[in-house]
Amino acid sequence: MLPPQLPPPVRRQAPPHRVVIVAFPGAELLDVTGPAEVFSVATRVAGPGRPGYTVRVATAGGDPVVTSSGLRLMADLALEEVDGAVDTLLVSGAVEVGEGGVEPVLDGAVVDWLRDAAPRAGRLGSVCAGAHLLAAAGLLDGLPATTHWLTAGRLAADHPRVAVDPDPLFIRAGRLWTCAGITSGMDMALAMVTEDHGPELALATARMMVMYVKRAGGQSQFSVPLAVPEAARGDRIDELRVWIGEHLAEDLSAEALAARLHLSVRHFSRLFRRRTGTTPAAYVESARLEAARGLLQDSGHGLPEVAALSGLGSVESLHRSFRRRLGTTPAEYRRRFR
Hints:
By secondary structure, the protein is α/β, with parallel strands linked by helices. It has helices at about 30-45, 110-115, 130-135, 150-160, 185-195, 200-210, 235-245, 255-260, 265-275, 280-300, 305-310, 315-325, 330-335, and strands spanning about 15-20, 55-60, 65, 70-75, 75-80, 90, 95-100, 100-105, 125, 145, 165, 170-175, 175-180. The strands form four sheets. A seven-stranded mixed sheet has the order 5-2-1-6-9-13-12, with helices on both faces. A two-stranded antiparallel sheet has the order 3-4. The model is unreliable at about 220-235 (pLDDT under 50).
């Protein structure tokens, strides 16, 4: 007599990864829709039977908001309705442009809500000037963070306990992620897909979206010659930054740069940090490192020529800079990005 046939085991599909993106009046539209589209496409590419993502937009009171582009964005739920089961919580950003320059927008309702709700999220991130809201809520204290280079100096000045780095596209510090903004929010979302589901799904998602999947977080968010818009180049520090990018092989010590502006080293260093959010030495190294990256990606120069043309001087200095700032070697960087 044959034994009775047992029914096949029931396979329970893992629940989707819950993503909530916080928006408020004046928020950059792409800060919200960019990451949302990455998660949506990843879910479609993964196909049925695999856990994907659900994305919801939350606003104060669940009200529609008018974004920076003038387009109205509908909300899926109110901030008060966001419970502790959120896997990824992202905060969009907003800036205002006035006579004094670019100012980050701090939405008080969002900041107050973040203090209580953000610690309960599995993963927390900000897009562009959204880092200012996280910092205002005390969530970035003691951590490395980045934001759009235009507001990085303000972030460093307002929140000295935050280790602001204005260069990377995005930074991960444990469960907390920050990014430079606009399209880098999509790069950060792709990195999150990689963490959740592996590089194959991230690559397939990038192909579907015609994105450059190699834009890792450590890549620079700006090009030195383009770091200062033409309209802003009346400022002496901004003009000096452009000059630095064109004279990388020269003496760019703080003493030499201060002399060029006919300032004391102390006064120059204070002005430079206030304008850029970093020291002259750190900025010069970033500029030289960026030049070295470009030479490794786009030229056939050997390492001694790359070191000389970028102003880093020697192959040893080139290696030290790459290892300290990027965690890799020049040869590995060329292999990966060329």
